[in-house]
What we know:
The complex is a heterodimer of chains A (157) and B (450).
Chain A: H1 2-16, E1 22-26, E2 32-38, E3 50-56, E4 67-71, H2 111-123, H3 134-140
Antiparallel strand pairs in A: 1-2, 2-3, 3-4
Chain B: H1 3-9, E1 46-49, E2 54-56, H2 57-65, E3 86-87, H3 92-99, E4 102-104, E5 115-117, H4 121-128, E6 133-135, E7 144-146, E8 160-162, E9 169-171, H5 172-182, E10 187-189, E11 196-198, H6 202-208, E12 213-215, E13 226-228, H7 229-238, H8 240-301, H9 311-324, H10 327-406, H11 411-416, H12 423-428, H13 432-448
Antiparallel strand pairs in B: 1-2, 1-3, 4-5, 6-7, 8-9, 10-11, 12-13
Pfam families (chain B): zf-RING_UBOX, zf-TRAF
GO molecular function (chain B): zinc ion binding
Region (Disordered) (chain B): 292-324, 393-450
Amino acid sequence: MFAGKRLSKELLKMKEHLPPGISIAKSENLEEWQMDIQVLDENPLYQNQVYRLKFTFSSKYPIEPPEVQFIELSSTSETPRPIPIHPHIYSNGIICLDLLSSAGWSPVQTVESVCMSIQSMLTANTRDERPPGDSDFVSYNRRRPRDINFFYDDDNV
Amino acid sequence: MNIDEFLAMEPCSDLDEVVDLRSLDYVSSYDDHLMCAICHCPYIRPVRLQCDHVFCQKCLNTAITTFATGRHEFKCPTCRAPAKGVYLSVPRFLVNMCDDIRVKCPFEAEGCKEIVPRGHVQSHVDKYCGYRLMDCPDLFCTKKTRKKDLSAENKCMHELHQCLRCDEEVMEQDYQEHVQELCPSLKTTCPDCEATVFRKALREHIDACPEAIHSCAASKYGCPVKVKRAELVVHEQNCPLITMGPYFEAQNARLDSMELTIRHLQQRNEIFEDGLASIRSTLVESSRVMSARNADVPAETNSQIRPSNPSVPENEQYDNSSASSNATTYLLALHESLREEVGQLSHAITDLDARASMAIMNECLRLKEDMAHTNAAVSSIRMQVQWLMNPRIHQGQRTGVRTSNNNNNNETRTGQLGSSTSGPSNAAGPSPGLLRPRRLSDSGREGTKL
């Protein structure tokens, strides 16, 4: 109830105004939203690409963080959405960002602010690589993103 | 106060609240600064942290109790400064501004149209709202009644009554409304022909009403005529678009079937394109394997003759170009490179052949020369041996003469050895007693070897 109320308020506000490069792709219910984000500057890694973020909200949102990950839509579909290359984004779309962990989360964050954080995380990146151990993680990981204990050891990117 | 005291005081302060202020429908827009960052509602019972960030009491409470690393580590959700204490005193104007925001009555769904400031909504619901749902006075009835419908006699308003006209069963509280407005047996007038009909028959009447205005049946083909139903029959007999109607229908059907065919063909085309793409990818794959094999073979056979193998970079170049050019030119290029490869190989083989025959010839010459040398040496040795043997033969003959002399046989000495050299052997044979055993063997060899 708390989550639904807050989310409908956020949605109302986002439909009025959104920062450039961020748009709502799907918001049919109050459990799962999809957002499209774009990197706006000249970064050659992400130029002319749109990426799709999936937000999954628990009933305790915003006290608990939402589950946020990139999802891939195949290049043959009408709206192709790849997974961006980044040293903190695994190729299955899981994002290693302390903001999204229960320790780094703060209830004042909104869907909009999370999108902007991820946008700036992409903008600042210059490394054309996946996290170390990406293929192992992708093939063996069956946990949900919030159950994974990431080590936030790299503050550079 | 510190955080523990704050958490302890929370439960008892919420008891008198009936209205959930967060789920109210806010009518007037409110400033973002009046909004709690956690629940996004105007502050409800605002409290303040040491960093001057304000939150609703309830929101802050939930945030502290669910904070991951423990309540004493709690940091301000907005600025992450350590929250050492919670202050209940916030500026009065903040509370007033939040309470002044207009909201709809929570019983809007029941029919209350009231819009009041948020600060008054509690008293409105408590005292004035006639639509508030109350428990039925009848202890055995579990239904709820609007406050205004409660009868003075405190009797249950949920008994069913049968409508005298339409036989429908209606609750007592809704009976008045049903009889006056909703009952299907009530009469009503048609908006077109002003005939009076029953409410339940109104829909059928409108469909058939001769006065109702209808558009021509050919309106979908562009006929703009709209006349009363009675006149429509006359119009439709003369309407040119209606006579064209069947032709339009046929054309529409054709268009539909063609669109269907096009879609079908598009699908097939997609399938073919997919197949083509997969064939192309397998070609690229196989050519890669072949070029790898080509790179291996010359490296084994020709490594001595041609250490740098030109075929490998060429094949790579063809691999790159194959992505852009079509399959045929790619195949031709591949064929060309293979042909060149074969030419190079045959050239290398003739080269090797020439080298081998040259080497064999050199070797033969050398061997011939050696053999000539050996022959010469052998003949010279033979001559020496002959030269060495000659005096022995003479000696042997002379001793033989000497024994025959001893036996008084003088003819042999003059007859056999009169022509051969006799001077030196006369001096070499003074000791017949010493040479006697060797003479036997020498004389044995004489007959066989020389």
